[in-house]
Amino acid sequence: MDPLCMLSYEGDPGELSPEQMNELDAELRRKVYHNANKVGTLIEERFGVKYLERGIQKLLNRLKFTFQKSKILPPQADPVAQEAFVEWYERTKKNLERQTGFTSWMPLK
Fold this sequence. Notes:
Layout: H1 2-5, H2 18-30, H3 36-47, H4 53-62, H5 79-100
Helix pairs in contact: 3-4
């Protein structure tokens, strides 16, 4: 019974050599690739090996990479640029008031 319980199956090592896997890992840590197809293109161009999308996902999991959905973040305001804009706006508004005689402004819709 013991030999049946001790399966030594390690799985397919894949198409890339350990050196190629290390090179791929280093490249993926250096640059962000936004989807598996872009990683597949990299692998095909650099190593001449073509993977299906699911195979690339499994390869990335073996390298301990995970898919992370990007989050939309509001832009961070630049206080210096904001102050410069307010100053420009106030100058422009005063100049236009002097030139046209209008003193009230309606917001654009």
